[in-house]
Amino acid sequence: MKKAQEHTAPKKYGMVIDLDKCTGCGACMAACMAENNVPFREDETDKNLSITWLRVYKLTNGKKFPNADVCYLPRPCMHCEGHHGHSPCVSVCPATATDYSYDTGIVSQIYTRCFGCRYCMAACPYHVRYFNWWDPVWPEGMEKMLSPNVSVRTRGVVEKCSFCFHRYQIAMEKVRYEGRAELAEDEYQTACTQACPANAITFGDLNNHDHAVYKLKTHPDAFRLLERLGTNPKVYYISSREWVRRQGDNYLENEGKVVAKAH
Amino acid sequence: MNIARRSFLAFLIGGAAGTALSPLPWKLTDDLSIWTQTWPWTPVPPDGEYSYVNSVCTLCPGGCGITVRKVDNRAVKIEGMAGHPVNDGGICILGASGLQLLYGPRRVKAPMRRVGERGEGKWETISWDEAIAAAAEKLEGIRSAGNPQGVACMVGDRYGTVPSLFERFMTAYGSPNFMSDAAIEDSYRITLNLMHGKNAIPGFDAGNADFVVSFGSGVIEGWGSPVRMFLAHGKWKDENKTLVQVEPRLSNTAAKADKWVAVQPGTEAVLALSMAYVIIKENLYDKSFVAENAAAFEDWRDDEGKTYPGFKTFVLNGFSPADASKVTGVDPSLIVSLARSFAGAEKPLALCGRGKGNTPGSLHEFMAVHALNGLVGAINRPGGVWAIDVPDYVTWPKPGLDEAARAGLEKPRVDGADGGAYPYTESIISGFADGVNSGSAGYGVEALLVSGANPLYTLRDAQAVRKAFDSIGFVVSFSSYMDETAAQADLILPNHTYLERRQDVPAPFGLNMPVIGMSRPVVPPQFDTRQVGDSLMGIARKMGGSVGDAFGWESYEACLKETMGAAWETLEKDGILVKADYAPEGWGEAFNTPSKKFQFFTGAYRHGENKDLMSQMKIEGEAADFPLILIPYDSMRLASGPVADTPFMAKTIEEDVLIHDDVYVQVNPATAASLNLREGKVAELTTPVGKARVRVHLSEGIGEGVIALPTGLGHWANSKYIAGKGVNVNRLMSPVADPVSGLDAAWGIRAKLARA
Ligand code: SF4
Ligand code: SF4
Ligand code: SF4
User: Quick one: which of B64, B264, B314, B332 has the most CB atoms within 10 Å?
Assistant: First the structure.
């Protein structure tokens, strides 16, 4: 089994989300919740407390009727690479409960290590992290739909989008079992990508020439959120609307065109 | 904010680097997390054998293929079925959270009989035998007392075996009062009947159109088969096709469109006809189609020599862009350019039916929009509207009728859908409450059977509907969930959910090919429920006589199998039967009107209606008392049909829609200022039929004088995750009968808003 032991090139999983196609329908959010055993409560209207690994934000252009415009922006974890894996959240976690993987580029969250100091939540500029203030409660019978692939969180821990890392693990197991060296592009896709009825989300290895994201990230209208913070996120957005691209990084009125620096 | 966050970040990075170097905090935090996380009540989902079952989602008329992931006998996730002709792997938010309905807290777990007051929530669980006997006995009593017509029935879908079984039951029993939930499909069906002479449902080859004008249709908000429309929308983006959205409010579709035309609410038909004016005036129409395949374009004469104005005369006499602009508020030059682009496109397509299409709408508007398609020849061709024959696979011989049945069937309908006033309409569910309350049919309604519908929530003027319900002595619900209607019933015979039953799923709305789907049990029934077809046949058999004889099948499944005939095997195997090589009928065979041509307006009304073709649908209320216009709006994140939002969906309701239990009403800032209302303020919203507490949300997405509320909120039965939140906009609206179809055509209602 020499082949299986060969080193595979490090991957950098990332996403390109086409905001021109995203309809704001929210299917990605529900698919994510179902995939990852996300809990829910009776009142979820306080969005700071509402655990949504993937949250679809609504942006408005601020113009008056009938020149007003709206754009939806799905926001998973950006899986920031920072400089060589120094993601803002990873750098501050005293428990190494969150870590940057150099093999996949995925920022993990290990619930059994997290003790709830919430430094990472303060450090994350994208508000992708949520704290479990309460133990999750499923109405009687609904625990039947919980997936064994993702551990159920308890009160006191932080959770966030994992790029459905368990799907990567399951796919890799299969690859190893079959003695292959590489994972094909469609063998590992996140739940939101799979669900999106508008095909707005593309997921893959940003390092791999053959993956769709490789080319898409260099689209002339591609940008990343708060790019200038140096967080080096691995989620790219495409929008043909200049006002949307500008809101992606709090641009000043008279600054030039927004362009992404490629990974 | 940006700067502050950056410095905060730098501070934290420094702090954390120091602690991480020492092993001690490591150990401590490890212990700490062990201590804080070993709660016995946190479930550990058991692992097991994985399997995948393909089926069809029936939570809306979309008919998407689904693949359900199972671990042993538990269904853990619903995904879109890859390669399915409707949705090709995509899924909507409701479909993706469907397991929360299956395993949800509001399942009706066994047959139940009401013991307390109606709606009090006191039930006793009874056996199936008792439940069937109770229903049969009551219905038999009404029948033998000579009032079989006094039993009414409401179903959700119109086609397929289950609605047909109910229809058959009503016929054999002797009541004309069979009704199905109405939607834009009904208006389209009547439009195609009048203009094509076909008993057909519309198919839209949307993906292949290159210039789409949507008159308020929520192309990405659940109109048609929702996922299919999302895919079409994505294709338009990829291929640089154009979408123009005509709508008074900045909906998601309007925001995504290449052009949003903010029209005055309720004047969409005028805009369509004004576009027709430009197309005719400038000679831009498809001359060969109009000359060879259309009738009543020019003035025409009937057999008796009477002349009628043709479409051309009609349009040129009243719909110049200058005139239309006064009504619609749309700039004349925009109307002209829109008309030119539409007619100049290779594959133009015009759509109508507002929002998700849950309200049928004005037939005049449908015909105006369809006339636009006719003018450019976008009929039965790639990228156009296709007339697809209604599903006709249910071909059972007529049931035998006894004397009582024959007498009952002679009686007038309660909902007014009788030959006289509305010759094209089969049933008018929105007219039922009025019919009951006014006693217009001349007999009392004593019992009501409800299956697949939730009229107490979805019908407008909820007070009137409630009053009608209160007067009906015996209400039987076949619902799987404790919805608003089930909560007011006397007897519940719970159906399996769509994930537990086998059932045909005919014709997803708007698909341009004939398709039959088949849902199958993904998991065994979780509770003591029964496929509704079996419950109904059980009741019929218990009643015996000609009613029982009408149902000779051994079981529902036997009936389904027999009905599907040769198709059964394919349906069992693939879950879907597609006529893959389907092509629309050529223009030569496409029209079965008296002229064998496409009929423009005056030619279409074969019964010589004397209806004012230009009458705009007036909504209820007077401007003097109610200065504002309230319009409802639909959203994918709010299920607004018979089923309510799942807990996952409720999580995604946006912060400008709901805060705690208060719904936001969208108000233009200038309107709000004139009423002295500010963002977030509590206000009282009043319409001629109801009042509600709301909060104000200032929005530039809506014009002055118009306000908007979301559909899908204000449930009162249902789970605590959605019940008690916001207002049911149907409670504030009043149905307005369309003069041609009689179906509900209310696109809004007059309203006022005041500080609370
Ligand atoms: S599922 Fe797709 S279209 Fe819908 S909100 Fe998510 S990204 Fe947007
Ligand atoms: S988005 Fe936030 S949580 Fe995700 S890697 Fe970046 S800093 Fe960490
Ligand atoms: S669009 Fe309709 S049929 Fe398709 S998944 Fe959603 S609810 Fe089900």
Answer: B64
> Is residue A200, in this structure, part of any structural domain at all?
yes
In this predicted structure, the answer to whether residue B33 has a pLDDT above a threshold of 60 is no
Q: Which ligand is nearest to the CA of B68?
A: 3
Task: Name the range with the highest mean pLDDT among A212-216, B194-198, B362-366, B417-421.
Answer: A212-216
Q: pLDDT tens-digit profile of B322-369?
A: 999 999 999 999 999 999 999 999 999 999 999 999 999 999 999 999
Instruction: Assess contact for A229 and A238: CB atoms under 8 A.
Output: no
Residue carrying structure tokens 């290159």: B210
Q: How far is the centre of ligand 3, averaged over its atoms, from the C-alpha of B265 (Å)?
A: 28
**Domain at B206-383, CATH from 3.40.50.2300, 3.40.50.620, 3.40.228.10, 1.10.150.170:** 3.40.228.10
Q: Which of residues 161-220 of A touch B (CB under 8 A)?
A: 191, 194-200
Name the residue facing A26 among B1, B76, B652 (closest C-beta): B652
C-alpha–C-alpha distance, residues B399 and B167, integer Å? 11
Q: Are B237 and A21 within 8 A, CB to CB?
A: yes
Tokens of A221: 């209208």
Tell me, yes or no, whether A172 lies in a domain: yes
- Closest residue of B to A118, CA-based? B12
Is the distance from the beta carbon of residue A24 to the nearest atom of ligand 1 less than 6 Å?
yes
Identity of residue A189: Q
Q: Which atom of ligand 1 is nearest to the CA of A54?
A: 6
Structural domain includes residue A160 = yes
* Domain range list for chain B: 3-37, 50-102, 112-184+392-578, 206-383, 618-755
Enumerate the residues of chain A whose CB falls inside 8 A of the CB of residue B526.
141
B10 pLDDT exceeds 50?
A: no
Q: State the Cα–Cα distance between residues B410 and B144, nearest whole angstrom.
A: 16
Closest Cα in chain A to B77: A34
Range of the domain at A45: 13-255
3-state secondary structure of B368: helix
Token pair for residue A127?
Answer: 């508000």
Smallest Cβ distance to A44: which of B221, B651, B656? B651
Considering the domain delimited by B618-755, tell me its CATH architecture: Beta Barrel (2.40)
Q: What class does CATH assign to B50-102?
A: mainly beta
Give the CATH number for residue A113: 3.30.70.20
Distance B93 CA to ligand 3 centre (A): 8
Residue B226: which residues within 8 A CB-CB, separation 6 or more? A197, B60, B62, B92, B356, B636
Q: Among A92, A137, A153, pick the best mutation site for testing chain B contact (most B Cβ within 10 A).
A: A92
- Residue A236 CA to ligand 1 centre (angstroms): 15
Is B33 within 8 Å of A256 (Cβ atoms)?
Answer: no
Distance from C-alpha of A254 to C-alpha of B25, rounded to nearest angstrom = 48
Query: What pLDDT, on a 0 to 100 scale, did the predictor assign at position A256?
Result: 61
- Residue B366 CA to residue B351 CA, distance in Å, equals 9
Using an 8 Å CB-CB cutoff, list chain B residues near A199: 90, 231, 234
Task: Please indicate if any CB of chain B lies within 8 Å of the CB of A233.
Answer: no
**Total tally of structural domains belonging to chain A:** 1
ipTM of the prediction = 0.94
The answer as to whether A262 is a domain residue is: no
Query: B306: which residues sit within 8 A by CB, 6+ positions away?
Result: none
CB spacing of A155 vs B39 below 8 angstroms: yes
Cβ of residue B64 lying under 6 Å from some atom of ligand 3:
yes
The verdict on the CB of residue A80 being under 6 Å from ligand 1 is no
Q: What is the pLDDT of residues B454-500, one digit of tens each?
A: 999 999 998 999 999 999 999 999 999 999 999 999 999 999 999 99
What residues does B691 pair with on adjacent strands? B686
Cβ within 8 Å, pair B231-A141 = no
